[in-house]
Structure formats: structure tokens, C-alpha cells
Specification:
5 helices, two-stranded parallel sheet, about 40% helix, mainly alpha
């Protein structure tokens, strides 16, 4: 499996951790939870969507539910990457380095976004808000 270049990330260990977390998100099981009901518009085509709510209200469970729903509607497993930024292995990664994550995804899943939509799920991203707008724009444009 290809490895992430550590250029611009604090040490080679951080690059390996990003690579490992991404590989886990693309191959591991999607966690189950109590289904959440949503009212109103939940998705706007071509737009970045934020799930917000009070602590322990089920935001992470909802993200996984949406991933399972997309699988049920024909999305491939490798089109549903999930990254939890509370993971201590990603402590050195900040929003300005999210480009490395996108590049690594492109190496692990060549051509994934060319034929269909890739639905990225970033959990606890608020802890990396430094330049998240630029990273979100790059995701939306790619």
C-alpha cells in the first residue's frame, strides 16, 4: 500500500498515521448505532454539509448512518472515507495539511472521484479550524 510523504507534516510518523487512519476508514466496518431521524433538507448537491449539535447528541452516529445509507444506494466503500480528528494519531495534522490527506486518498484509491462522488466525513474537525475553509473548497472542487 502506498505511503504518505511526510513533507510538510511533523515527522514521518505523522504521515504514516494519516496513511493508516485513511486505510482503516476505507476498509473497516462502518459502526452501527441508534438510527437518527432527519427532517428537512439533508444534502445539497455539490455543497459542503455540516452536522452540528450539542455534545453527545449523535452527530458521529449520524455520519456513520449517512455512510451506510450511501452504501445502500450504490456507493462503493472506498468512496466514503471517514476521519476523526480527535484521534491522537492525528494530533500533528492541522487544517493547512489536509491536502496531504487528499493526496494520500488519491494514491490509495486512484480515480475514485473521477466517475462518481466521494463523500468525505470529517468528525471533530472543529479542532482543526485553522484553514478549514480552504481545505473544504479544495474538496468540493476536486
Amino acid at each position: 500500500m502506498p505511503r504518505l510523504s511526510a513533507v510538510g507534516i511533523s515527522g514521518i510518523h505523522a504521515g504514516e498515521d494519516v496513511n493508516e487512519k485513511l486505510a482503516e476508514s476505507l476498509a473497516g466496518p462502518i459502526p452501527e448505532g441508534t438510527p437518527r431521524r432527519l427532517y428537512g433538507t439533508t444534502r445539497l448537491s455539490g455543497k459542503v454539509t455540516a452536522v452540528i449539535g450539542v455534545r453527545r447528541s449523535g452527530k458521529t452516529t449520524l455520519l456513520h448512518q449517512l455512510r451506510r445509507d450511501r452504501l445502500g444506494h450504490g456507493a462503493k466503500r472506498d468512496q466514503l472515507p471517514y476521519m476523526n480528528f480527535e484521534d491522537e494519531r492525528l494530533a500533528d495534522l492541522d487544517a493547512s495539511q489536509l491536502g496531504f490527506l487528499l493526496d494520500e486518498y488519491g494514491r490509495q484509491v486512484p480515480g475514485a472521484g473521477e466517475k462518481s462522488t466521494v463523500t468525505w466525513c470529517f468528525d471533530e474537525i472543529h479542532s482543526r479550524l485553522g484553514t478549514i475553509r480552504a481545505a473544504a473548497a479544495r474538496l468540493q472542487d476536486s
